[in-house]
Amino acid sequence: MSKPVLIIGGGPAGLAAAHSLATVGKESVIVEKEDRLGGAPILSGYAKLVPTGEWAKDAIGGMVKRVEAESSVKVVTGTKVTDFDGSPGNFTAKLSNGDAVDAEAVIVCSGFTHFDSVNKPEWGFGTYEDVVTTTQVEQMISSGQGVRCPSDDRKPQRVAILLCVGSRDRQIGREWCSKICCTVSSNIAMEIREELPDCHVYIYYMDIRTFGLYETKYYWKSQEEFKVKYIKARIAEVTSDGEKLIVKGEDTLVKRPITIPFDMVVHAIGMDPNVDNPEISETLGIDLETHGFIDVANRYGAMGATSRPGVYVAGSATGPETIDDSIAQGHAAAMAVLSGARDLKTA
Amino acid sequence: MPIHEKSLIRPENLTTHEELTLDGVDVSGHWSTFIETRVVNDYNENLQEEIAALPGGEEIHRCWQCGSCTNACTVNAINEDFNPRYWIYLIRMGMESELLRDKDIIWQCVSCNKCTYACPRDVFPEGVMKATAHWLERKGHTEKSPSTHFDEVFTEQIVKTGKIEESRTMRRFFSRTGQALAQPWMIEMVKRMLRGLPIGLLTRMGLATLVAPKTNDWSKASAAIQEYIDEQHEKQAQALSLAELVETAKQDVAA
Ligand SMILES: Cc1cc2nc3c(=O)[nH]c(=O)nc-3n(C[C@H](O)[C@H](O)[C@H](O)COP(=O)(O)OP(=O)(O)OC[C@H]3O[C@@H](n4cnc5c(N)ncnc54)[C@H](O)[C@@H]3O)c2cc1C
Ligand code: SF4
Ligand code: SF4
Ligand code: SF4
């Protein structure tokens, strides 16, 4: 029997890759650094997902259960790869738990890291309790607690969502668009309006990128049915008058300064390259692209090829991706591994 | 008056008629205020290129109109009409006549660079403000600002002597801006310097005022720098079509 495929990271992409391989009877080993599988949607406790509206714990939780039930998938949690050597068909990876894994190929599914809002101090995160991130609001909703101001647990009457926090900003060296946060924000805005119909929700944007079919289902719907207000302005600063948060900026469409009190300010945080990427790149001997994500060497011939033959990559490790695209890439990388193996045999 | 955002409409474009009947309908008075259509037909499609040709204006094409510069701006906090984001928009769209409406406040930028540190696209708005102010001067829309006079006096002296001698710079600056040298604060400052500074230093300063010291062997460097400056000025003049401007002006006078 040939060697298993090593999958690094057990988020949506890694789970999809493992499932595909299991389908054709190919063994795999998932090495996940956290104590459980599921990736960002599970680890960060997301609520209802875009675009299906299914709860993350059901949708992604279901993927986890499916993989855990496969006898051909071995799961190692709380572990990282520390050393890596060999050639296609014949790799050896040493793990931080002391074990070693012989592998035929590798699929890197190590995902992204949430932007840390502390790096944009002018927007008040870390200074004011009621300045939160989209991840925190997701958790408020998914835990069943509901959207409340952290400082005193009150129901907010006015919420401001600031887009592109940690994205599209040369000042902090992040030029990319995180792709999903516009849609996630309009989704969250609708969820807030649903739970608290008296609460006014404002979204401050530079561009709205609810790409593709999300235009109708999120941007238009949130405006037309949920009366979410969109204002074209990049906020200058978030301060406080002791009672309310004060948001300052310029409404650029009407050329007017704005100073508006809010109960809660939400940062639509972006997707950073995984903080582990320099280490992963060094250990596996694969290149990163200019922003620090893992470089995809071949876009058309073999899905998810990296700069090193036999090592593949899928999901948000390659750049900001949605869950469904990450899953598709996971499946595609599994397929690429299989065709790579066939090429090796015939060579 | 039920016009949304009335303040955005220029007063001269708002008209009401005491007595007016149109097609038999009485439209007199306040409730039927008219807004005259505003047609912009004098676009200068080169405006962005012209600003970009002046030092500081090079990155203006990057702007995506987020407003962070205006939000951060020191002068905007005092005067809402001082709006770098808006001017960048006008320049990029080539709306020269609109820009000229604000010609008397654009130069007021204090170069604090708060905008520079806020701009997510590294447009360098402070530089754009400087370039725009220079553009206004070179096109003859505004007089040279005091800071331009100061920069010129300062630069001329360095190019000529390779050194800076403050009292000379101050004297020239005052004379070019038409200010008396014997400003009360100036007299006070000199008095205190006389009291406080060591004799040796005072003597050197006094001497420098008289003999205008020069860096040794400066003339070659001076010529090279001057040549470079002239070259740049010529390039900028071309980008701004200044020669054509002078030509049209001559013809206008002749006609
Ligand atoms: C606030 C927010 C809301 C979102 N909501 C949605 C949504 O509703 N719909 C949608 O389509 N997308 C959404 N996304 C995007 C979604 O999170 C990603 O598309 C998805 O998580 C990508 O899956 P992944 O498997 O590539 O990476 P991840 O989910 O990041 O999983 C990577 C896994 O690898 C592990 N790992 C990392 N480094 C190592 C290492 N060195 N060794 C071993 N293991 C490692 C991690 O612990 C993690 O388990 C949202 C994103 C944000 C920020
Ligand atoms: S998806 Fe929207 S909020 Fe996110 S970075 Fe792109 S434009 Fe900004
Ligand atoms: S440098 Fe000028 S434009 Fe920029 S913030 Fe300061 S005053 Fe405003
Ligand atoms: S901050 Fe930069 S990008 Fe934004 S409006 Fe000002 S110059 Fe343009």
Q: What does this molecule look like?
A:
The complex is a heterodimer of chains A (347) and B (255). With 347 residues, chain A is an alpha/beta fold. Chain A folds into two domains: 5-111 and 274-346, FAD/NAD(P)-binding domain; 117-270, FAD/NAD(P)-binding domain, CATH 3.50.50. Chain A is built from eight helices and 18 strands. Chain A has helices spanning 12-23, 39-43, 56-68, 134-142, 181-195, 214-224, 277-284, 323-346, and strands at 5-8, 28-31, 73-76, 81-87, 90-95, 100-103, 105-108, 112-114, 131-133, 158-165, 200-205, 229-232, 237-240, 245-251, 256-262, 264-269, 271-273, 311-313. Chain A has a five-stranded parallel sheet with strand order 3-2-1-7-18, covered by helices on one side. A five-stranded parallel sheet of chain A has the order 9-16-10-11-12. In chain A, helix 1 (12-23) links the parallel strand 1 (5-8) and strand 2 (28-31). In chain A, helix 4 packs across helix 5 (181-195) and helix 5 runs parallel beside helix 6 (214-224). Chain A is elongated. Chain A starts with a strand and ends with a helix. Chain B has 13 helices and four strands. In chain B, strand 2 and strand 3 (25-26) form a beta hairpin. Chain B is mainly alpha-helical and 255 residues long. Chain B has three domains: 3-35, no CATH class; 47-138, Fumarate Reductase Iron-sulfur Protein, Chain B, domain 2, CATH 1.10.1060.10; 146-211, no CATH class. In chain B, the strands form two sheets. Chain B has a two-stranded antiparallel ribbon with strand order 1-4. Chain B has a two-stranded antiparallel sheet with strand order 2-3. In chain B, helix 8 (146-161) packs antiparallel against helix 12 (218-239). The two termini of chain B are 48 Å apart.
